Amino acid sequence: MKIDRELLTLGIETSCDETSASVTRGGRHVLSNVISSQIHVHEAFGGVVPEIASRHHLTQINAVIDTAMKDAGVAFPDLDLIGVTEGPGLVGAVLIGLSTAKAMALALDKPLVGVHHIKGHICAAYLEHEELSPPLLSLVVSGGHTYLIDVRDHQNFEILGRTRDDAVGEAFDKVARVLGLGYPGGPKVDEAARRGNPEAVAFKRVMLEKDSLDFSFSGIKTGVLNYVNTERQAGRPINLADVAASFQASVVDVVVAKTQLAIDRAGYKTLTVGGGVASNSLLRRRLTEACDAAGVKLYIPSPIFCTDNAAMIACAAHCDYIAGKVSSLNLDAKANFQL
User: Fold this and answer.
1) pTM exceeds 0.85 for this model
2) Which among 109, 180, 214, 272 has the fewest CB atoms less than 10 Å away?
3) 263 inside domain
């Protein structure tokens, strides 16, 4: 077998609305990372439609893989293993990538490694920082997930906190819809907030029980809806930028405060952040300030590795394979896959 640093991994990611394929060498050296986005497809609906997402994956998957292989300059027989998201995610979408990966593994006689999507987001930070390794604290914030995770090593994790209702990205999407800002909500709210006053509207910061590391964002979402409805019924003008900035500030305040508490509790001096909401400009700035003040090293991937992408899946698959994990061709999609 090739030595660790030379292993070529093909990663495939189709958990939601991005069809992605990537080739990495040694897990962390990204040779290609191709993403076919469906934003324009779902924009008219104001959110992801599962059936449409699955159809898009079906039509795009082969072309995306071929492009990734061509960009990487490698042939299919050169691959050492194939990594693929097995969940969590939209089950129809996950099945497209999983079925493709299983067929390729069988045809090429290559090992198959099923990857947990959240583990991919944790590994995203490794792609640009070769020196980075556990133990560390990881914050995962995306459209479907909000977690604080104690990463003890590449195979052992403990969830310290999670959302009890809406994921943070889901709250951004719903508020953007209420304000008529469009889809995807996260970037739209972030853009509008830059023109607004974050202290204009006093939205509540939901911290839950004392010292809890869990999150709850449904209340702030409802708070925005109630505010907008009250102002409209009273015939008062609504400054959308101010509402967006105030909502974003309330969410970021909670996420940063919980993360600081988790850092103190875990005792680590390294924090990684992953998921689409990790691209939010205010969150990045506030976490940078908090980590600088606490003497904690902060690693946030470039935006291309914050969104769902196959490079992070290839990296996670490489870590699992080195640890001895190989999946069966009976591997099935897991819509609700626990870390």
Assistant:
1) yes
2) 109
3) yes
